[in-house]
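// run 5 | inverse folding | seed 20
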């Protein structure tokens, strides 16, 4: 870019950052002020709210501390994302952030889904407040009218309070949605009867246009089935079949196929040299990334990151998928990772690397 453009870019970037900082700072102060006000009962509506919750003077509103913490975190996050946006970021970065927030990321064995945490915390705070109101306002009056003796009445109110908090915590945790259906390979085997015609009884398909599923990571299989069902990945046959599967079916089928052993094929001799060099080193001249970086040197992928196993896959299927990624017909790859790679590949490169993968293990 020329100097004129550069200075304009710098000017817009700096000015935008300053405006953003001031705007978010104002928003943060306003929110903190409201929270402080509710805790102190500054305005009439805030005092009324405190009365309703029967809070004593100076007593903080339950759950409010979590809301405070969250707004601070969210505001910082928004600032980070918007500043990067101002200075210009690639589409990949944008969609990675978006998917990171809504679809989450893998942290060891757990999947962290930030948006669910936000909802979970809000639900928890609201429920805790509700429980408090019931415990202090509704219950005493209600039990007071009964003939239960006074000591027992107090016990009922206290215990109900604790039970309420526990329920609030459970409901809050449940909305985190980390609990994924656990797959049962035995049940999966029984359910795979309809799949066997195309994918083979043990997930080693014979026809090269049907993918081998044997040894594929369960997480990747479940993801594909869910996306065939939602239509995010389109294929007439699989869209129809997946529509009939429940989440449990998907988890069972995935567990079954993941436990099978893939039968490795044979690569065409004349394609191996180019295929191997592409797979291991990519094509620095055109910017094709090395497949091994994500799919591993032996093609087993990475279950934590949801990178599928490729080893032994039919060359015909692999080549078709690479072309789908290249044209954007398949666009279910997080952060457009595969579209970025395949978009820069030539037909001969696709043929060669697909042959190499067919014999890779
Ligand atoms: C009529 C043949 C047929 C049947 C039956 C069938 N599939 Fe498929 N399956 C395909 C084809 C073709 C593809 C590749 C489609 C594409 O290009 O997206 C595929 C793709 C898949 C994929 C994605 C694989 C990958 O590596 O991304 C999964 C997972 C899958 N099938 C699971 C199943 C399950 C589970 C069943 C049984 C409920 C089933 N299929 C039944 C033909 C079939
Ligand atoms: C930055 C990481 C990354 C790199 C580099 C990469 N891939 Fe992938 N690949 C992925 C991810 C992630 C998926 C799964 C997409 C999804 O969730 O559907 C995938 C899926 C695939 C699939 C579809 C598998 C199936 O069963 O349908 C093929 C084929 C594939 N990659 C081949 C390649 C080849 C060949 C290269 C090198 C030229 C390569 N990949 C480089 C991340 C990568």
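// decoded
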């Amino acid at each position: 870019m020329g100097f004129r453009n550069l200075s304009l870019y710098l000017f817009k970037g700096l000015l935008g950052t300053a405006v953003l900082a001031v705007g978010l700072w104002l928003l943060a102060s306003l929110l903190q002020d409201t929270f402080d006000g509710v805790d102190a009962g500054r305005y009439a509506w805030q005092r009324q709210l405190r009365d309703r919750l029967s809070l004593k003077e100076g007593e903080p509103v339950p759950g409010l501390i979590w809301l405070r913490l969250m707004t601070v975190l969210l505001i910082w996050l928004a600032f980070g994302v918007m500043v990067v946006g101002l200075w210009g970021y690639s589409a990949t970065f944008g969609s990675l952030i978006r998917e990171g927030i809504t679809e989450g990321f893998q942290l060891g064995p757990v999947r962290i889904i930030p948006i669910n945490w936000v909802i979970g915390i809000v639900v928890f705070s609201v429920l805790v407040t509700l429980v408090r109101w019931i415990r202090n306002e509704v219950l005493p009056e209600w039990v007071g009218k009964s003939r239960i003796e006074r000591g027992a009445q107090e016990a009922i109110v206290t215990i109900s309070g604790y039970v309420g908090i526990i329920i609030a915590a459970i409901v809050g945790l449940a909305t985190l949605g980390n609990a994924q259906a656990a797959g049962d390979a035995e049940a999966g085997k029984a359910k795979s009867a309809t799949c066997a015609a195309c994918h083979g009884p043990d997930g080693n398909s014979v026809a090269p246009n049907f993918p081998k599923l044997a040894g594929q990571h369960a997480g990747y299989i479940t993801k594909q089935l869910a996306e065939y069902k939602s239509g995010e990945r389109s294929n007439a046959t699989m869209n129809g079949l997946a529509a009939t599967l429940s989440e449990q079916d998907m988890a069972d089928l995935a567990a079954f196929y993941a436990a099978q052993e893939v039968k490795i094929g044979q690569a065409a001799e004349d394609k191996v040299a180019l295929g191997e060099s592409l797979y291991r080193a990519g094509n620095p001249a055109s910017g094709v990334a090395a497949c091994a970086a994500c799919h591993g040197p032996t093609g087993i992928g990475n279950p934590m990151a949801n990178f599928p196993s490729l080893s032994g896959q039919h060359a015909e299927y692999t080549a078709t998928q690479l072309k789908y990624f290249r044209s954007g017909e398949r666009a279910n790859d997080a952060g457009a990772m595969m579209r970025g790679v395949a978009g820069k590949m030539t037909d001969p490169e696709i043929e060669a690397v697909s042959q190499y993968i067919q014999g890779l293990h």
